[in-house]
Amino acid sequence: MGKASNGELRQELVAGLRRTLDEGHASAKEILTLTRNGIACARQLSAAMDGVVTCLHVAASQHFYPAVNPSQSERIAVVAVGGYGRGTLAPGSDVDLLFLFPHKQTAWGESVVEAMLYPLWDLKLKVGHSVRSVDDCIREARADMTIRTALLEARFLSGDRPLFEEMKRRFGAEVVEGTAQVFTEAKLAERETRVTRAGSSRYLVEPNVKDGKGGLRDLNTLFWIAKYAYRVEDPEDLVAAGLFDRKEMQMFQRSEEFLWRVRCWMHFITGRAEERLSFDLQRQVTAAIGYAGRSGQAPVERFMKAYFLVAKDVGDLTAIVCAALEARQQKPRATLTRLIGSFTKRKRVRALGHPDFTLQSQRLAVLDDDAFERDPVNLLRLYEIASRDDLAIHPDTSRLVTQSLRLVSTQLRNDPEANKIFLEILTARRSPEPVLRRMNESGLLGRFIPDFGRIVAMMQFNMYHHYTVDEHLIRSIGVLAEIDAGQLETEHPLANSIISTISNRRALYVALFLHDIAKGRPEDHSTAGAKIARKLGPRLGLTDAQTETAAWLVEHHLDMSTVAQSRDLGDPKTIESFAATVQTLERLKLLLILTIADIKAVGPGVWNGWKGQLLRTLYYETEIVLAGGHSAIERRARVERKQDALKERLGDWGEAERDAYLARHYPAYWIKVDPPRQEKHARFLRQAESEGRTTATMVETDQFRGITELTILAPDHPRLLAIVTGACAAAGGNIADAQIFTTTDGLVLDTISISRAFERDDDELRRAERIAAAIERALKGEIKIADLVAQRRAPPPRGQTFQVAPEVIIDNVLSARHTVLEVTGLDRPGLLYDLTTAIGKLNLNIASAHIATFGEKAVDVFYVTDLTNAKITSTARQLSIRKALLDVFTFDHEKAQASKARTPARA
Length: 907
Hints:
Layout: H1 3-35, H2 38-64, E1 77-80, H3 82-85, E2 95-101, H4 107-122, E3 127-133, H5 134-143, H6 145-152, E4 155-159, H7 161-176, H8 180-198, H9 216-230, H10 237-240, H11 246-270, H12 279-289, H13 299-329, H14 335-352, E5 357-360, E6 363-366, H15 371-374, H16 378-389, H17 395-403, H18 410-413, H19 416-426, H20 433-442, H21 444-448, H22 450-454, H23 469-484, H24 493-498, H25 505-514, H26 525-540, H27 544-555, H28 559-566, H29 572-582, H30 585-600, H31 609-626, H32 632-649, H33 655-662, H34 667-672, H35 675-690, E7 696-702, E8 707-715, H36 720-730, E9 735-742, E10 747-755, H37 761-779, H38 785-792, E11 807-811, E12 819-826, H39 831-841, E13 845-854, E14 857-865, H40 875-887, H41 893-902
Parallel strand pairs: 2-3
Antiparallel strand pairs: 1-2, 1-4, 5-6, 7-8, 8-10, 9-10, 9-13, 11-12, 12-14, 13-14
Helix pairs in contact: 1-2, 2-4, 2-11, 5-6, 5-7, 8-9, 9-13, 11-12, 11-13, 12-13, 13-17, 16-19, 16-20, 20-23, 23-25, 23-30, 25-26, 25-27, 25-30, 26-27, 28-31, 29-31, 30-31, 32-35, 36-37, 36-38, 36-39
Region (Uridylyltransferase): 1-351
EC number: 2.7.7.59, 3.1.4.-
Pfam families: ACT, GlnD_UR_UTase, HD, NTP_transf_2
């Protein structure tokens, strides 16, 4: 057959194979849709690929390069390895092949391999291939765990089967035999590295389905280890081998099917090998699988709860396998060692304080399998001893806890001793976080506190919360314990100094444990949570006063964060109103500590020093009111003290110059701004005047607070803040807060705080100076801010992931002098610019702005007056304001595109 006809045959072959693959994919998708079975889908995809590979081998070895008189060396076995070797493929999976030869590759073999690979590449498949002799396989498997694992799952596809059987026999005898412990340790270490890279918690709200903790790779690892140690070929054989009981085997199969179902849908929906279950994919996979909303939970939240429960089951299976392998690998000790070990163990058992517990391999265990049946309170005692003595719990005992959950009855829940033990665990001086997490993963925590069981594995579908609700609550207790132990003094100096002075420590721990326990209910979770606290407090042994304190903290756990981040802390009405809510200094202390722990446990990067400063300011201002101060006389006295302090700092100025400068600021300035910053402002204004400038900027970084400050001096003008926010938006600056002050001589002194973008100060300063320069140019009319913002803004994608209903609240009670506009909606680049522009067009003066972002949700608050410095009281005027601000969230795609088209290239 000539080369030309070979080429034509290859083209026809590729076209035919493309049809086979397309039909295979369509059939697999139909199976997934109709049967909802992820494993069946994955096996269908693998079977379709088997047909393609087998066909190619036949074509290459019998049509393109037939061996007329084949020698012993001209033999080949085509073998599936890795994931393909398991007989399961996702739509976007790699195809891993081993071309196996008896000895080194021959020219004939090289031609056959190439004739198979080129069509696979023409089909746009991701092919991982290796060409090895049997000796190569054995040698490389001994040296490389990845190759060893791939060969462990080798599956014959086509060619010389005796050659494949020889490789499998030698692999078992020369590689696997006697090396189970080494392989197990290597695989578990590899798993730790992998899950750390993918995100160490199995409760991350955008999990990696393949490589994340509790994902498919964890199940693969379990089977690799079990297959290697028990020498089984099918997961079903693990029951006969004694590794799993029938119920656990069903858990393995159910988890594997669910994860494959999710992964296959992810690949089908995206058209690629997408492994991260991102927010936008979660909605689509939820719809594809067919979840519906129920009991106040959205469909996507129900689907993700199912996902996290499966991830938890995978974690349980991991513990079971590790315990079994540990038991297999124990070696008998010499007689003397056994005697010494036995004596030490008996001594330690007595120290444990209860006859039903012992130590096994230096881990806490029950004396026998009837320990929990004899006394169900032992379920709680187990974790109390583990916490008290800092002991790991033996996996077999953790397994027994899960199998004994039926013993958690109403009688046990109401048992005074059981509740006393639980409260000891929750409030332990050592960190209770790891023990609470163990209790949660065994299922005991949700059974003992049924309201907690309702939020296990529950996610909140937003970008703000990084973890499931149960994981967030447990992490928050960990943060509180660190503050309690004095470990966070540098980061939280105020909380560190006051926690030793509180008298309601137990109420604080209980409140933090319960603060989000009512999430997912139709009722407001703070109100519903307070009811749960009032019901649970007496059961746990709290006094009536402690129970009421815990309930109050749960009901008001968001108040301090909300006021600190979205209210004007220099406005006396803000402080007086918050003080009226708090009422006592003890509650103020408790609420501050709880708020810090809550925010820090939301996720990495959510807490920063800027939020810390806002909370401290609110605390100190409220403390004065609760102590009986903060009257008009007290405020005047504070202004005078600050003015005197600034006079001392400006000792190099003349008396007349200092007095003239002090007269330029209104009282609000002296109350809100600290003395070091007042001195910087004074010298900044003096320098600008000496240079004859009425428009100037100053930048300063603050690593502790995690922000960079831009100070802007300019003539007062209604649209000034819009220009400043627009310049920040155009330069990619994320504004955290804005302090706005007007001087008595008609200038504006604004301080804009933007979130840091760089670790190094010099990089951050260069960025801030670019933003400051853009602000100056915009204020002078040299650049058009609207065009720059339009360039930065992108239209939201069709069917965008998150929906936040816009809301505008207009309040004349929160401030004595200003109308407060609170605007909530979906965040996007340029939103603050659009809002401030709209406010400017409404002829409103902005006295201060407070910007808070919670993931995709923006909450922007403006203190405003009309042009006569009066509140907006007219109902018609309020309606027009509300309409104008709501219109900002109505995004017109065509206008955005037209604006972009008009933007000059230089901008």
